Every structure is written in C-alpha cells, then in structure tokens.
Amino acid sequence: LAPHTHPNPHRSLLGTGNYDVNVIMAALQGLGLVALWWDKRRSLEQVVLGQVLGFILNVPSGVTLGTFTLPLRRQHWVAVRELQGTFYNLDSKLREPVAIGGEAELRTFLQDFLARGLCEVFLVVPQAVEEAGTWLRPQ
Fold this sequence. Notes:
Elements: H1 21-29, E1 33-37, E2 54-65, E3 68-83, E4 86-89, E5 98-101, H2 103-115, E6 120-126, H3 127-132
Antiparallel strand pairs: 1-6, 2-3, 2-6, 3-4, 4-5
C-alpha cells in the first residue's frame, strides 16, 4: 500500500516490519481470508474456535538495540495458530513456536493479553465464514 509515498504511512519509519493493520488485511484478503477485530467487551467464550484459522494480536513490546533495552514501547504483531489440536504462539521474537495448549488455555492466553490493555485481537477466518457469521456464538 502506497509504495511510492515517503514516508509510507503503512509501515514503520525504520522499515522494521511493524506494518499498519491495513497491510495485514489486504494480504489476507488476497488469500480469501478476513481479519475480524475482536470487541474486548465480549466474552471470548463466544468465539467458535472451529471456524477460526488463527489469531493476530497487536501488543505493546519493548525496544532493544543489541543487548540494551530502551525505555520505549511500540506495537508488535503476534500470530497464534492451531496445529493438531494445540494452539501455538508464533511470535517472531521467540526462538521457536511456543505451545499454548488447547481451547481453554488459548482463551486464557488471549484474555491475559487483552487484560494488559493497549492490545488488539483479530480473528482470521475464511471470507465465507465471515459472511455467514458462524465464527460467533449468539448471546
């Protein structure tokens, strides 16, 4: 998005990959997927996990330069995906994917991030699931 605009409003000034949510949504759309913003006022029990392909979290993260930690915070994207019944934290800052556990552990993991504040959660679903609304249990 806006590749010839300087500075590009859809990525960080340093080009370190902290892309604007519009870039992520456009990339998913090209794959027939949709990122749905999760309203924090809802209970995570309403999410029909069998209809969700994964989660993208935008979370506050510390800034480091080599071994030095700077007194700054910036937003960071984290992906979560299920594989053979286990959900994994695919944060690029981790050495390797970290198992979260099953559905109950995933809901706790997501709630912990949401409770920290300044965190956003997006559900990644196929476009047909979004259109049918089958990713959300009725209240």
